[in-house]
Amino acid sequence: MNRHDACYRRLFSDPRLLRDLLACAVQDPWIDTLNWIGLQPVPAEYISDDLRRRCGDAVWRIPQKPAADGTPPATDLYILILLEFQSQPVRIMALRLLTYAGLLYESLLQHRLIPTGAPLPLLLPIVLYSGHRRWRAPTELSALLTPADPALARYQPQLRYLLIDEGALLQAGALPDRNLATLLFRMEHAQGIDELREIVHTLLDATIDPGFEELRRAFTLWLRHVLLARVVPSASPPETTDLQEFNMTLAEKAITWTEQWEQQGQAHLLEHQLAHRFGPLPAHLIEQLHSASATQLEAWALNVIDAATLDEVFRG
């Protein structure tokens, strides 16, 4: 499991963040029937090693509240989240989720977590996407299948997932204020150190009450090992798990890290321009872009104007 996936799993193991995540994307009444205090992570060992490397998967079980008359709820809700951090949406994501859903149900039956003869529990498949390009892949499996006669179509597998495209939600501007997931999205898409410091300050205010200590540590680890590593890869992250100390380091390093952040922004822009013109870039060229100096990036950007091939872009 890579650091991004590990940090996100740790963040969303807190029921308050998972609840705020759904509050950003779901306005349906059934949300109010969930008992968030009873949130429990579900082991995902049923997923093969290959699938685990390709997707950051996480599963939670949330009991439902009893009815107003005291009647016990019919079933629990299982939330299956795939954490997608690629710059390009995955076209067959609905198919991938269908596989995960089947494996989850088989695991629940195998470990006898469902009473014999009881119906299978409800499942909410979610794709949480933090890429900067908008998600255009189909959100339901039927869009991937060959069109069929209606009499045959009813026998085809069905699955639809809830897409949470962080960038699209931020762009729409309708996210709730002081929502923990909103603050996470804003940090993911921050444009510089000053903006990041402002968001971290708001996060500190939102988590000042007792009981938020572990969540603040989880945010700090994510900021250190994931966000800074991406936007300021040459920086030495502060050795702290305290969010307040981390924010003080941001203030101390603001000038130096701002310059490096802007340089990484130039590298990302050039990467997208090259991919748009020449197709997906080899891994070694992407690494070369993000380790280049500002002078090298400027020279390659000028080469793009007349270059007919990737080799011509990187000449000299």
From TrEMBL:
Residues 260-312 form the DUF4351 domain. Coiled coil: none annotated. Residues 2-203 form the Transposase (putative) YhgA-like domain. Pfam families: DUF4351, Transposase_31. InterPro entries: DUF4351, Rpn/YhgA-like_nuclease, Transposase_31. This is Rpn family recombination-promoting nuclease/putative transposase. It comes from Castellaniella hirudinis.
